[in-house]
Design goal:
mainly alpha, 53% helix, Segregation and condensation protein A, elongated, 102 residues
């Protein structure tokens, strides 16, 4: 197990498998990236198969998240950052209406 798994202990086994498979496929794509003008080391068929796999993985991740009532927001966040997006920030309307004195 990696540190990555510890961060996502709340995920099901299937979600963990999908996440690792997605990571491996994107690593393969990144590691085999060819500069412009160079022939890609992977065949066009293999590249398309990787794309198809990534699409299927993403679709299944969305299905699982929806079925489990989980948020699909995969952006990194700080440990002390609130999890809910419905945080209310009070705004002092009076301060916004006053014109600055010149």
């Amino acid at each position: 197990m990696t540190d990555h798994d510890d961060d996502h202990a709340e995920l099901t086994k299937e979600q963990k498998i999908l996440r690792i498979m997605q990571s491996v496929l994107t690593d393969v794509a990144r590691d085999t990236h060819a500069p412009p003008g160079m022939k890609h080391p992977l065949s066009d068929k293999t590249i398309q198969n990787i794309r198809d796999c990534l699409s299927l993985i993403t679709a299944r991740q969305q299905e699982l998240a929806e079925a489990l009532g989980q948020d699909m927001n995969m952006r990194p966040r700080y440990a002390d950052e609130p999890r809910k997006s419905d945080t209310v920030v009070p705004i002092n309307i009076d301060a916004l209406r006053k014109k600055p004195e010149s």
